[in-house]
């Protein structure tokens, strides 16, 4: 695949400082004008029904499009990256709100930076909850702590809203919890890319 083979581009970012550079890179090397999620000329096809729709990150909107296209609604999408987000998508695909919690890597970094004696560790499911050394104790706290956070918040969402939600987990980190969460029905790593594709298709003739 050569640069000259690429005829279209779509950008989704929650880092405004990066957008200028990405847009210029696409213009210079691909010779195309990118679609940018969140800009007024891009129709994402999702109605945002929260107090201030402009506050919703592009990544969450793209996930909403990709998940609703594949699964319908209502949905709760759990995506763990820099932040761990829980997004509620209604029966007709509306973005109705959600929860934003610190991401697992952010918590790990803060733990290491704030306590000099604590090492950097890999995220993995420990063999037992009670750690027999510092690394095992940290792995248990991170892994089972985040399972507790995810399942605890999902339990509260499902208790607050009586609709029959399908709960979808996405993002590379959430997949580490596969089989451990009692509430996530399905893991799908392609929600974001499918959402971008769907938005591009919606706007390609505009």
Question: What does this protein structure show overall?
Answer:
The mean pLDDT is 89. Helices cover 39% and strands 16% of the residues. Strand 1, helix 1 and strand 2 form a beta-alpha-beta unit. The longest helix is centred in the C-terminal third of the chain and has 27 residues. It is globular, with a radius of gyration of 19 Å. It contains five helices and seven strands; from the N terminus they run E-H-E-H-E-E-E-H-H-E-E-H. The protein has two domains: 36 residues, no CATH class; 158 residues, ATPase, nucleotide binding domain (Nucleotidyltransferase, domain 5), CATH 3.30.420.40. The protein is an alpha/beta fold and 206 residues long. Helix 2 packs across helix 5. The protein has a five-stranded mixed β-sheet, sandwiched between helices. Strands 1-2 form a two-stranded parallel sheet.
TL;DR of this structure?
With 206 residues, this protein is α/β, with parallel strands linked by helices.
